[in-house]
Amino acid sequence: MELKEITCIVCPLGCRIQVEMEGGEIKSVKGYSCSRGLEYAKNEVTMPKRTITTSVRAIGGHLPLLSVRTKEPVPKEKIQEIMLELAKVEVKAPVKIGDVVVKNILGTGVDIIATRNLYVK
Amino acid sequence: MLKYDIIIIGGGPAGLGAAVEAYEKGVKNIVIIERDKYLGGILEQCIHNGFGLQEFKEELTGPEYAQRFIDKVEEYDINVMLETMVLEITPDRIVKAVNSKEGVFTIKAGAIILAMGCRERPRGAIMIPGTRPAGILTAGTAQRYVNMEGYLPGKEIVILGSGDVGLIMARRLTLEGAKVKAVVELMPYSSGLTRNIVQCLEDFNIPLLLSHTVIEIHGKDRVEGVTIAKVDENREPIMETAQYISCDTLILSVGLIPENELSQKAGIELDPITGGPIVNEMLETSVPGIFACGNVLQVHDLVDNVTAEARLAANSAIRFIREGEFGKSNIAVKAGNGIRYVVPQKINVDNIEKRIKFRMRPVNVYNNAMLVVKSGDKYLLRQKRQRLTPGEMIDVNLSKDILKNANLEEGIVFLVEEG
After folding, report:
1. Chain B contacts of A11, Cβ < 8 Å?
2. pTM, 2 dp
3. How do residues B354-380 score in pLDDT, each as one tens digit?
4. CB-closest option in B47, B175, B195 to A9
5. Residues near B30 by Cβ (< 8 Å), separated by ≥ 6?
6. What residues of chain A lie within 8 A of the CB of B49, using their CB?
7. What CATH superfamily classification does B2-119+257-326 receive?
8. Which residues of B touch A50 (CB under 8 A)?
9. In chain A, which residue's Cα lies nearest the Cα of B192?
10. What are the φ/ψ torsions at residue B264 (nearest 5 degrees)?
11. Which domain of life is it from (chain A) (predicted)?
12. H or E element in which residue B6 lies
């Protein structure tokens, strides 16, 4: 039996969750206070995921950068690879908030979307 | 003189929230005055996620959260003056402002909502010895460079202070290829949210050195390194523990100060602990008809709480312009043992609708403590709290019934009972 201690990051409460594991299987989860926390804890011990928020180069916009994020959380181990991929991306103004900037980034099934409006300068 | 029902000073989350609420409640002759080129305030550079869980039941980034309100301001065609600086407000609610189009002008308000936000404590405020090279900047400035202007301020970084902006920047700079060597925190606990320590530091193996501080900055033209040391219980450096860390940038995340120069000029009384105005249950300052919300009132952890506070300020301002002054708020609200401050600082029970929310911070970290509200010897409320920490604001709701049925002559005290 293996016990994993997790601090939940879903909301600012920061619940301390204990997950009991046996042979890669989850035996019990304790200490969470909502269903999102339970889900987070289960993912965290099997496949931890994060939302990446960053920016990409923008051409002709009111800002030199466009802020973007992964539409859903992606596997934590992919963060660096995705950042390197996004370093190559350039967008042209105008862009609307929510527009897809990169579809299905690195085959994760997750899109990169714009998190602000970018106006033509 | 041009007259508005409500003048809102500041176009960040507090100002936007107040404007949208006032409009939706039918008060449309309002104006937002903003000194920047865009609405949104600090949210524009907070491109990380974690905003809106309470307000919109989804997780948004700062610009996305702001845009929800900006869209409404545009849809309602609310008056906005951008790149306009307020120079002065008077107790009779005349606002003097300046911009490059109209020069200096004055406008009159039925009510004023202060929503100017806060600014960061700079190096000068914490008196670190050493030279004055380039490469020392506050976390918010670093955030602006990286997220808005497209510059990386350095390659090898030490962060002093573990406020939320500092933690967020530790991750952001790491993602952009810089090496964050350590986050150094004077106190034995972080002043940031636990979730930020996990997802910004632990995820990237960035060390958090508690009870440590920077005792010297090295370098002539550019930062070359810092000397850090452990501190004792009086927060004095223990010289034997001094160690040198080479770095080209020192980022400061050492606290935020509500921006109240305008309030002071108007004769508004400030709370020396929060740095914001002393307010009553309506979020009205000591000057009738002038209200405060958001970080200008008290530094918040969550924008969702700022929005909630802005709504209350807007509704109070509306009541003021319709009904006039509220009657005195005579009941003092005090911070007792274990509590650093409480907002509001005084109340009038008659003005409370169903319940009132108090916001406060503890002085220290407490586990499994009781949060207690007392009046004289009588308990009004006792609540078990799993964890209290200065980095996380505490909310306490009290119902009007509890307050009405209590003898509040001696005021209300909030305190922590341990064990």
Report:
1. 53, 195
2. 0.94
3. 999 999 999 999 999 999 999 999 999
4. B195
5. B4, B5, B6, B7, B8, B19, B22, B23, B78, B79
6. 51, 53, 69
7. FAD/NAD(P)-binding domain (3.50.50.60)
8. 199, 203
9. A12
10. -60, -40
11. Bacteria
12. strand B2-9
Phi, then psi, of B126 in degrees rounded to 5: -120, 0
Residues of chain A with CATH 2.20.25: 1-45
Sign of the Cα pseudo-torsion (B415, B307, B259, B114, in order): negative
* Residue A23 near chain B (CB below 8 Å): no
The CATH code belonging to domain B122-254 is 3.50.50.60
Verify whether the Cβ–Cβ distance B63 to A67 is below 8 Å.
Answer: yes
User: Do residues B190 and A9 lie in contact, with contact meaning Cβ atoms separated by under 8 Å?
Assistant: no
Res. A10 pLDDT band, cuts 50 70 90: confident
Does the beta-carbon distance from A9 to B59 stay under 8 Å?
no
- Whether residue B47 and residue A63 make contact (CB cut-off 8 A), yes or no, is no
pLDDT digits (tens, 9 = 90+) for B204-259: 999 999 999 999 999 999 999 999 999 999 999 999 999 999 999 999 999 999 99
Q: Selecting from 3.40.50.2300, 3.10.530.10, 3.40.190.10, 3.40.50.620, what CATH number does the domain A51-112 have?
A: 3.10.530.10
When computed from its CA atoms, the radius of gyration of chain B, rounded to whole angstroms, is: 22
**Which tokens in the block code for residue B66?**
């702001």
Yes or no, beta carbons of A12 and B392 under 8 Å apart: yes
Does A79 lie at the interface with B, CB-CB under 8 angstroms?
Answer: yes
The CA distance from A76 to B175, in Å, is: 12
Nearest to B63 among A54, A76, A116 (CB): A116
Say if strands A16-22 and B412-417 run parallel, antiparallel, or are unpaired.
unpaired
Does the distance separating the beta carbons of B63 and A65 come in below 8 Å? no
